[in-house]
Amino acid sequence: MVSIIKNQLLKHLSRFTKNLSADKINLSTFKGEGELSNLELDEIVLTELLELPSWLRLTRAWCNRVQFRIHWTKLKTVPIYLKLDEVNIIVETCEELRSLSSPSGASSYGGVPGKYSFIHKVIDGITIAVNTVNITFNSPAFTASVQISRIIVESKSTSWQRSDLRMTRLKDTDKGQILIFKELEWQTVRIEAKSTKDKELTPLRLLTNHARCRITIKKRLSDCFIMGSRLVLILDDLLWVLTDSQMKAALHFLDSLADLVQKATDVTRKEKAARKLEVLPEYQAQKAQEARSNEASAISKIFSRYDVVETSYHFLSQHIVLHLCDDPGDSRSCHPNLKDGGALQISLHGFQVDYYPYHLAMGDRKHWPRYKDGSVPHTQWLNQSLSSFRSKFIDLIDKNRSQHVPLSRSSQAQNQTNNTKPLDNHSSSMQSGVSPDSAKKSSNTVKNYVLKQLPKMMTTCIIVRIEDFSLYKVTTSGKKQALKEFISGDRDHISLPEDTNIFHAEFTYYYYPGNIPFPLPPPKFYVQLNPTQIYFDIDSCLWMNSFALNLHQSLVGAKSNASSAPLPYIDVKIEAILPRVILESNIDQHGQRDRPKSLHLQVTRATITNVRSLEQSSRADLAKCVDSFHMGSLFFGSDFPSQPNDYYIVTQKFLDHIAAMDNVRSVPEFIPSKPCSEQFTQELLWTEAKDVWCINLDPVWADFYGARSVGSNRPIPFLDAVPVTIWVHMNMDMQPKCSFDEPKTADIHALAYISNLVSVQLNHYQYLFLLRMAEDLSELATFLTVDSNRILKQDVDKSLAIGALIPQVEVTFVMPSQCPGKESSGGDLESVLPDSSSIADDILAATGSGATLWQPSETLSSQTDLGKKSANVEPIRVRPEMGLAITSPINESMTRSTPKATDGAAGMKNTPQSQPFSNIPNNLNAGLSSMKKGFSNLMTSIDSALKSSPDDMSDTVSIRSDASSDSENYVVVNLESGERNVECMDAMFKVQGVNYDVPPRAAVVEMASEVIEDENTVTTPSEHSLASTYKRRDLVSVATFKLSKVEFLQQSAGFASNLKVQVSNIVSDECGSIPWDEFQSKFSSRSRAWVDLPANSNTSLSVKLRLDHDLDLSSLSAIKDMNMSDKTGLRKLFKDTLNIQVNDVDLILNMSTVIGLADLVEDEIIPIQIPMQISLNNIQLHLNEDRPPNNITSPGPIPIDLKVNQLFINKDVDGVFHIMPLTQNSISSTSSSMSLREEKERERELQTMQQTIRQLKSDNDELKRRLAAFDRISDENRVLRKTKEESEILRACLTSAQDDIAKLINDKKSLLESLQKMEEHFKQPDRSRQWTTKR
Questions:
Q1: Among residues 52, 68, 55, 47, which one has the least CA distance to residue 5?
Q2: Residue 1053: pLDDT over 80
Q3: Which of 59, 313, 531, 820 might form a disulfide with 578, Cβ 3.0–4.6 angstroms?
Q4: How far apart are CA 315 and CA 989, in angstroms?
Q5: What is the pTM of this model?
Q6: Residue 76: Cβ-neighbour burial (10 angstroms; 0-12, 13-18, 19+)
């Protein structure tokens, strides 16, 4: 008996092993136990059986001992147990890709083909335990060893618990499919890799803790074909310390395999996708059958919950901590704080990667686990892109036809490509995509071929999601430092829902199954970044720059052709919701109560994209921006402040991009009427250039925080909300141009388009804060340039040019009132809002308070400090019955944005306190309406994310086997559909005993503003009211300067930079005394009544300014050898020069304002003297004496009128001012020495010049007429271009609507047919009954 069993084992195992003999098998038949020793496996058979990638080859595999145990009487309930002691495997890379297995797909087990039967159940339920697995990986670039200990592979139930074997699979006989649930678990993994080419590279080591891999396999019962699988790798908390040398080694290892893996992936993906496409009709038929049946069986409902619709791979780790350290050497930054090195810590919570290699491009994503299709706007972007691609492709085919024949409804239904519909809709179109009817209705062979191939398009999707993350500031050696956040999610401040991720990224790549050349949409990369805060830190920025440049230089040095490789053609869209940039001061001034500690730059929604669409990134929007720049003389003129060697900000690239003349390839004029594979290339429709980027900030504002005079957590406005659009082009051509005819261009050009009023307020202490921040930014720019040139070893400096034209800038200087007791609301602040005594409640709703508009009344009445907006204070949640989770911090952003909206803004509709705003004129511009739209979209997305139904723990599903041990019947208890499908899929991603909540960050303990002693506050009975607690009682004096048509241009190259500013007109407005809180309320409403006046081309320029910053030529070599710790000496290496021209300025100012402005601009340190030259021409000043007289005999205030015709002021490096006339000396000396003969010659020349001037005037008039005509034509072209883009979208929507109508008609026909069949079915029993009666 034993010998017979041994022979049978030898017969079956000899195909998988080498040199297996009977003496190596120890068998006990009745106990069901056995042992095999020194088992060597056949590497060729094992390679094909495991379906290893085609770039890998298994060279050797052996096991020292195998033990097995079989319960002969319990095979249906107890699994076969295999125990392996030590397994050794050697694999290597292939120089050429090896051939794959049979295209029909490998059977589940090589020796057991045929229908799924009892033996398949036994084999599927085998439990395998391995003590140690040693894997050796050999490649030409490196060798690696992987050691895995204590591995166990076992079957699990649907809830991933150990259970009876019959509970570890689900079978649906109606569908003919079965689901098998397996779990692979191991204790530790040790990975070590070292280079074989470069011995200097540090070995790479990684040690992971406990992990598990859950696999759901879907098979077909008829032939055991594996139809799909879902693999989830769940890793425990991971801590990894990496130096830059180890990062170099890891990148070199990955780079050595990249080309080989990419080539193998392209081949296997297309071949396997062809097999997946063959399975799709079965799935579509099943979905159609389920839709037709009114009541599905219980087992079908359970099966659909756990069904694997498509193959997917997932990686999940709840917590990953990375420590990045730099090695000693030249790779470190030369900053004195980083000379001894530093370390950066990265903490990731809820890190998940999803990979879907075979997703139908037209299919939906409802079956994707833990994926909310409606909460990610990426799906809408993909839908629009696919629809545009299809329309563009069909139009190209119909272009050579004399008349465009639109698709018929039936043909559209059969070739449906609108991916906004469910997968079953598209499956029906795919099944009937080449029906005879469509062939008859369309005589174009190429069109029929295209309509047949489009539904077969598939995608590879990679999704990366992070629940929360934190990048901490760089810590340096030598002193113990506490961890402080550098970049982190702002979840606590905004109070995001728990199921909302901070980071969400998707990459989508299109392809066709099989080796079919066919046009494809470009790959797409989308990133959504939810509220994130960035703390400015010089050391962290410099360390990350040096670390990244060092890695980049190492990779570029390894590849000789890396610099010449073209950039990938890809569509990119990045969205950031409520990001914050925080600039903190390192100096704490305790005696300055108005000194802010930080400046917060905030944006409601920021978008970065290189795709032209109607969402404020179209070519028409770029044309509008360029047209506004044409209105400014700074960007095209050659007069001061411009110089001949300056950059041209509006390059030819922008003009070509507007006219679509910068395409990377030309579109074929037409396609012949016969299909030809040579012309259907993948990049056929990849024509548009992708190197022009649009950055949309809608809107951006800035607030100061930390001033103890108003509360450390209460914001003080600095920049009022304004929408900004920036167009950026990066010149990737590194070769410098030698042509003198072409204008000089920089490496990066940026055009900022601002169509709104820019309103700024500033006091003395805020001015000092900005000065110190400017010094820090200058220090950062200097060290970035030094580090980049030193690490990259290049002498060519990178250049940058940024330009902006602002219609109006209003700068308000806030100063202490010089006239106490004289309250006034004059100037531009008049009659905007009621007096401060009557707007207590309005301040809560409109001036940036932290009170929530939907907050319970008892909570609002108990709130006594505006500091509730801080991230360090617990957010106040609203009542749960209202269905909203918006808290006070997010309403802070709303109140900062809604004052720019109309009186019907979202935050003011439901409050009676907002009635005073009803009288404000409703003449808002398009920029602020777009801000309202962007914020409403944000609130809609947050609201949709909050509508998840609560978990009902009583809604459970119980599955048990029937009394018969071989029965496949199930009993379902309390079964309900809906959200339970999500819970079933989430169970695969969760492990018992693991806390999946994001840990709260350590709260910073701050002293409340009530505790700090306020020596300047006098308590009165009226201040005990709610409104009085939000008021600051001191009076201030404000002076507002309105700057019209401000042109700004900044350009830099290496260490040199210059700033050019032009202002058309300056108007001043003053208010001698006003309460501080009343001024703040009126400041926030300033932009409401602003209207952009039409530009006047005849207006002369009032102010021209140029500031040059350059490295002293004698110090160019000394900067590399000097002591970087001496910041004062470092600043002296640079020289600054300021040139100002002021023309035709007429101002009326109070003497108190002049004295207050002088005190406001006084610095707290002795600054380095900046040489300047100031030219004054036609200046008129009217100074009113508003100060109280010092003498009792004073007759009263006497105004001073000052008029300066021409004056030149020169300040040298010693700080000495030289005042001299502008041109009088030169004119007098010239006239005294002029002879009569020279005067006659001068008269003749003057007559000639007069004739020339008259001719030039006539030519100028003609050019003006032509320019006016050109402006009209450009406006018409812009309107036509916008109309064309809108028509394309309308055409796509019309096509989608026609497809929907056709689908509904088909559904109607199918329902009528089903109804007719049912009527015939019901009539048959009646006929049989009649026949029985007759008998």
A1: 68
A2: yes
A3: 531
A4: 9
A5: 0.75
A6: middle
